[in-house]
Amino acid sequence: MAHWIIAFPAIAFLLVAAPEAKATLYDDMGGKEGIDRLVDNSIKSFLADPRIGKTFDDTNMVRFRTMLTAQFCHIADGPCKYNGHSMAVAHRGLALRQVDFNALAEDLQSAMDVSGIPFRTQNRLLALLAPMQRDVVTK
Ligand code: HEM
User: Fold this and answer.
1) Is there an atom of ligand 1 within 6 Å of 76 CB?
2) How far is CA 107 from the centre of its chain?
3) Where are the domains of the chain?
4) Which of 29, 33, 68, 87 is most enclosed, with most CB atoms within 10 A?
5) Looking at residue 9, what is its pLDDT?
């Protein structure tokens, strides 16, 4: 048994190291720096969008930024824990419609483009966000 480890130390190393080396979505998004840049660009594009910008008029944007950053990091298997409101609680009372959700998703996509996130990585994040639609859209 030990003979092949001596004969093929490189293979033995790969077998031990491989699980550690697996990149998460967080890594593919550029880690902390990448997510900070994405959240920055996303907030700019939400606020500049005439379809949904006004929805944020009464929002504490410092908290929103912190929470969105933590949420993206958390769902992308990064080293963060999202401890904000559930999506149902965060959006209740906003009477959001499907068109609002689609507008935000579109803005997020262009923010991912601007942030240099590759298309495949974009789709992995969008796939994690899509099921939240049923808690966010209430009208
Ligand atoms: C998958 C889609 C969405 C995600 C992942 C998301 C994420 C979040 C997060 C993390 C928060 C902060 C919760 C907290 O403060 O604890 C939040 C709040 C908020 N979201 Fe969303 N959101 C989504 C869709 C939308 C849409 C479609 C709109 C409007 C067009 C919207 C408008 C808001 C507003 C206005 C707040 C702040 C509410 C307040 O002032 O307390 N969100 N969202």
Assistant:
1) no
2) 14
3) 24-136
4) 29
5) 67
Ligand 1 centroid – CA 47 distance (Å): 12
Q: Is residue 104 lining ligand 1, measured as CB closer than 6 Å?
A: yes
Which pair of structure tokens corresponds to residue 52? Answer: 């949904």
Residue 28 CA: distances (Å) to CA of 10, 74, 84: 26, 14, 24
> Nearest CA to 117 among 22, 28, 26, 23?
28
What average pLDDT does this structure show over 15-27?
76
Structure tokens at 18: 């491989």
Each residue's pLDDT tens digit, 67-98? 999 999 999 999 999 999 999 999 999 999 99
Measured in Å, residue 23 CA sits from the centre of ligand 1 at 28
Pocket probe for ligand 1: among 56, 57, 85, 91, the residue whose CB has the most ligand atoms within 8 Å is 91
Cα angle vertex 45, ends 97, 41, to 5°?
Answer: 130
Q: Measured from the CB, is residue 52 less than 6 Å from ligand 1?
A: yes
CATH of domain 24-136: 1.10.490.10
67 touches ligand 1 (CB under 6 Å):
yes
Q: Which residue has the tokens 């991912």?
A: 112
Give the type of residue at 15: L
